[in-house]
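User: What would this chain look like folded?
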Amino acid sequence: MGATVHAYAAREAGGELSAFEYDLPDLGAHKVDIRVTHCGICHSDLSMLDNDWGMAEYPFVPGHEVSGVVDAKGEHVDHLQIGQRVGLGWFSKSCMHCAQCMGGDHNLCATREQTIVGRYGGFADRVRCSSEWCVPLPDGVDGAKAGPLFCGGITVFNPIVQLGIKPTDRVGVVGIGGLGHMALAFLNKWGCEVTAFTSSASKVEEAKRLGAHRTVNSRDDSAIEGEAGRYDFLLITVNVPLNWQAYLNTIAPKGKLHFVGAVAEPIPVGVFDLMFTQRAISATPLGSPATTATMLDFCARHKVEPVTETFPMSKVNDALQHLRDGKARYRIVLEADF
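Assistant: Here's the prediction, encoded as structure tokens.
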């Protein structure tokens, strides 16, 4: 039989969240219900709440950084156990038969389901997903901090794997926020020389504690010009326009300027600026379940975790305002208190 879910939902774009209940249908053979213990808050939750991307449906239940335990599973789900610690991120289903799924790139499936698009998310006591996207938490990963790894964490870890970043590479991270602070830790433990680009003087020492070996003022064109040809990999985690030509000039021959921040404006680039140095510009969306599992194992082995602040889920509106005000350091996690 199905189950009644207790959640928090907005009834209109930008509206406050309030108590909301809905009934799940009978559990399918390949589905899993997760009892939510914690759920992170991401800027994408705010974008969806405000319908910035034009694809939100109301009532809208945010939440795509879920940490919890398996509460129910379908008859064909053999790889998960009731009570097992698991997590769920931006994607909640993929077709499992297209070339991308069969090749291990489930996150590139053309018909993939998104956890908070056209369905209800994880600001709730329970959330349902297809079993392939329900990823176990290894020992050594704190369930209270794990949620942000399933969105922000995998977003910055995936390109390290996809692009074959080497421990000998010189790398830079532009923007030290919810994404960037995790990128510093990953790349440091990966073995790279890591530079943090930040416009906030207050974050310089913190960036070094998080994993940066050096810092550069991200708004100082002359400082950026001084980095010319230095980086094998420059990860852009911000979503605002910057002096892209200056940043492109920091890329070494065969290096990569890579975007995980959702910059809305077009990026002006001359082909000659790429061609004669064999530079590349690229972007990636989150990661597959297998890459997510690899990231979690890496976190357990190297003791990498996001820097988090915790609010009870009943104070979700306070938590969302804290994020809107730019006060989050660096990820907010809601603790279910239904």
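The chain has two domains: 4-151+305-335, 154-283. If you want, I can go into more detail on any region.
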